[in-house]
Amino acid sequence: MSEAEAFTPEKIAVVGAGPVGCIVAAFLEKGGIDVVLCDVMPELLKSARDPGIRVTGAETLHQRITRTCTGVDELAEYRPDVIVIAVKATVLPLIASAIKGFLEKGMYVVSWQNGIDTELELAQTLGRETVLRAVVNYGCALKGPGDVVMGFHHPPHYIQELDPAASGVAVKIADLFTRCGLETRRTEEIVSMVWRKSAMNASMNPVCAMTGMTMAQAMNDPIVFQTVDALFKECLTVARANEISLGWDFYPHAMTYLRNAGNHKPSMLMDVENSRRTEIDFINGKVAAYGAQAGISTPYNTTLTSLVKGLESKK
Asked: Does the model's pTM come out above 0.85?
């Protein structure tokens, strides 16, 4: 029996008690999984334990989290089968370094995040055989510690291994998430899916961050929409120049998706409002980098990256 065939995920660690991590932890614990939620902010963990994580909006859920810890290195005592990374991509090097200190054969790490190449950041430290990448199809925001509003939820979510030998592991993790209410499927097209989502994020997040608009406001403003549209089309050009298939009908699909997102504030806008570092380098910055790699000019993505980083420097 291969390692993947013998793999039975029972203990799951979720790193990050922000809105994305809270949703994962709440669904898994409600599904009967042994969960530990990790975050450096004790106040977030305290609320997760009591009164528990409350999810409202597209999904309704109230669930107390039994186990928590304030440091990734503390997970060494817990020995999870799967570590779900649900933090900002900007802190991945630190997270990966901490995990490497206790990583054992048979443990797996899932990048459950926004952005391009987050899984490769993890794999640089942890090895490709250990890392999987997911594409998450829900939008959420934190009203307060443990209080999450899910603006939209468009399952299924998708997951894929970096090492083909771990395909069975991806299937089992997907099945576990599905049993717990987060429908997830193993795919062989995760790079394309990452780029599909990232193209939408790259066209919407920095525009909302710069204007203070919600997604619906940006999509429905005829002047602002011109920038959204130009960013999106530039992302399509870069993807195709790098031979990343997005599908011939992706543009109309994406526009429909974005128009149905409602008055949701994307995470980049909330980061700017709360004087936090954004993930612009892993979204528009990555599009610009892949454009340079293929010899494609990216004036819109380059400009928005610079403007958002300018906002960050004002902290």
From this structure: yes
